[in-house]
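Researcher: Sequence recovery benchmark, item below. Answer with residues only.
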């Protein structure tokens, strides 16, 4: 049976991959669950209803409509509508501040996931090289297990890359939707025509 001193150097890359990768996977799973629970898009119907109510002067009804929806879009709309501000410059500044206040829940915190993925993949490659070198120095054929660290590192890296891509896409979409809602609300509160972003 191999001694601990002989086993530990060969197992070190795998242990490092697990030590770094498992917390990263847990964090990514938590961010995915939080994003799915909070960053729901209430849809165009909600946006159109709120803007229509505000345009008709029914601000209290618009507030009630937003309060019934759990979404960053609704949160931003509530901040704007409850302020009772009507100056266009102040409204735009308030809308931007409200957008930034919900931004951490949408996009910040997971930006390091790709770097961790690159790190664990590199550790996996290093572990595979160490396993191959150990077999060659001992004069033995290279065992298939020598590639296990590389496979583990690549698997974790792929999962982290997928999680980051999904979260980043959701954050970008949510940000654009919030910007559209803010612009349309400001127009409605200033008695301007409703112009949808991206439409003519």
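Model:
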């Amino acid at each position: 049976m191999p001694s601990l001193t002989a086993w530990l150097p060969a197992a070190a890359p795998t242990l490092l991959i697990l030590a770094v990768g498992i917390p990263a996977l847990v964090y990514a799973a938590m961010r995915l669950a939080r994003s799915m629970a909070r960053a729901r898009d209430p849809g165009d119907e909600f946006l159109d209803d709120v803007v229509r109510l505000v345009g008709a002067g029914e601000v209290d009804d618009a507030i009630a409509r937003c309060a019934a929806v759990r979404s960053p879009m609704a949160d931003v709309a509530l901040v704007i509508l409850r302020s009772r501000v009507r100056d266009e410059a102040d409204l735009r500044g308030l809308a931007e501040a409200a957008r930034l206040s919900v931004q951490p829940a949408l996009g910040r915190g997971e930006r390091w996931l790709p770097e961790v993925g690159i790190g664990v993949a590199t550790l996996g490659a290093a572990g595979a090289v160490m396993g191959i070198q150990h077999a060659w120095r001992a004069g033995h054929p290279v065992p298939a297990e020598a590639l296990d660290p590389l496979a583990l590192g690549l698997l974790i890296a792929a999962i982290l890359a997928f999680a980051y891509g999904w979260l980043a896409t959701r954050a970008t979409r949510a940000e654009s939707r919030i910007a559209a809602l803010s612009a349309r609300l400001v127009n409605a509160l200033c008695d301007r025509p409703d112009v949808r972003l991206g439409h003519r």
